[in-house]
Amino acid sequence: MRAHPALQALSGLPTDTQATLAVGSIAIQPGTSVVLVGTGETDSSLDSYYGLGILRSADAGNSWTLSTEDAGRRQFAGLGFSKIAFSTLKPDIVVAAAAGASHGVIDGLENPVSANRGLYHSNDGGQNWTYSNIQDGGVTIAPDSATSVVFTTVAGVGVFFAALRSHGFYSSPDGAQWTRLPNQPGGLSTFLCPPNPAWLNCPIYRGELAVVAGREEMYAWYVDASDGDGGIWQTFDGGTNWKKLVDAGITNCGDAFGGCGTSQGSYNLELAAVPNGDATDLYAGAINLYKCTISSIFPSCDPNFVPTPPPDATFQNLTHVYGCPPDFGAIAHVHPDQHGITFMQVSDSQVVMYFANDGGIYRALDGYSGLTTGSCSGHNQFESLNQTLGSMTQFVSFSQHPTDPGTILGGSQDNGSPATNIGPEISTQWLNVNSGDGGYNAINPANPTEWFTANTDVSIQRCTWELPVTRRTSRKWSATPPWVEILAPFTRPISWIRKIQAS
């Protein structure tokens, strides 16, 4: 494996002292050292934490200022920012997509709820912000979450495009004035998606956009409020005409234990369009990562196309996170739940790919030659970049032993329930004592051999350590404990979380 520079946190820099580090988006102004960070998570999970505004650094992260409101005194607190896009023609113009964050509603910080969601624009590189005017047929739309925004050129003219929950896809020449695209991908009709009110029965709950720079080529993917797949769509004329791609390789991804399709599309959905000569490598991130090479010969990712396409001209499952048993995910060993994809084109024959998910950051040194198979007998050349970043785990809660302060039980989002008994201040070793999507937990203060963990929205477990000392070797546990489920598995209706988001 080729050596790579270690990723380093901005430890000791002013990021450590910011009011919030819950991050939803990052963008760099073209040709400058200006960095914008949209705070707040917009992934519609029950533990999506709110932000307090948009952080701006003019010196590549050495110092920061926080914008907490726009020119009209609309407050950013309680929101999240899903995407930020700069104009590449006029880099002082930038648009930020603001969306709901579950805890902003639960904790009462987003007040009034939904009124400040939507799109904000800045004409001075993110120093000052103004709420954008979004209209449908001359009617200003009811505010709702903006889930994606991109900038591209159409007929040589710069245009912003955005996805709006419960409304559809919109465009703007300047980031300030927005209109609904007359032709919507998938027929998002104004009957189902009226300008007012914002209606959850509209088939777009989360939409993502990706463009190919310099090509007037754009892709859209969206899901409804029940995570139903609205399809992946392609346009070469700024949304005047759309063509639906065949995403059968995503729907039927080959993993018998789940993870196919858009079953968590409201939580993890991502697109990236990478130029590959005259073709385009379209990456789609859901639970798994998928890739299809689109060309003039094989333009639709359709496995039934005539002539028969090669495997890479259909959506291939690059990760198989719940497939390829008994060594699940053996094709890549990449963590599930994809949230971000970006790339750096080194040359016409090499592109470096980066992927962000619930397990951290992964890289492929060459997406052209290293990410080529969807077969469990093959291997894709992903590498984890998490070794020097410490734990990428998001801890939801902690519990402490009542008499042994060095014993800590944690609950980590999507990464189980880790614990240590030699103190987190000196220990870098944690044992994952229970698996699954770790959540709230407790150590019984009256009987500290009794521990409780939870798999968020699924079940609660109980474990009794009969003789805790026998579980330790040199002050470390040598085995995971036996857990007993005490609350039968249940699934919280997705509409319950949607209700929190929309209330």
Textual characterization of the structure:
With 503 residues, the chain is mainly β. It has a domain of 93 residues: Thrombin, subunit H (Beta Barrel). The protein has a six-stranded mixed sheet, with no helix packed on it. It has a four-stranded antiparallel sheet with strand order 1-2-3-4, with no helix packed on it. It has a four-stranded antiparallel sheet with strand order 5-6-7-8. The N terminus and C terminus are likely disordered.
Layout of strands and helices, then pairs:
Layout: E1 23-28, E2 35-39, E3 54-57, E4 65-67, E5 79-86, E6 94-100, H1 102-106, E7 118-122, E8 130-131, E9 133-136, E10 139-140, E11 146-154, E12 157-164, E13 168-172, E14 177-180, E15 206-212, E16 217-223, E17 229-235, E18 243-244, H2 248-251, E19 270-276, E20 279-285, E21 289-294, E22 316-317, E23 338-347, E24 350-357, E25 360-364, H3 367-370, E26 382-384, E27 395-400, E28 408-412, E29 417-420, E30 431-434, E31 442-443, E32 450-455, E33 459-464, E34 472-473, E35 476-477, E36 484-487, H4 494-502
Descriptive keywords:
disordered C terminus; 503 residues; Thrombin, subunit H; mainly beta; six-stranded mixed beta sheet; four-stranded antiparallel beta sheet
What is the rounded Rg?
A: 23 Å
Into which percent range does the helicity of residues fall?
Answer: under 10%
Give a count of the beta strands, DSSP E runs of length 2 or more.
36
Please describe the biggest sheet, giving its number of strands, its sense, and whether it closes into a barrel.
6 strands, mixed
Question: What's the helix count?
Answer: 4
CATH third-tier fold name of the domain at 395-487? Thrombin, subunit H
| N-C termini distance | 50 Å
CATH architecture of the domain at 395-487: Beta Barrel
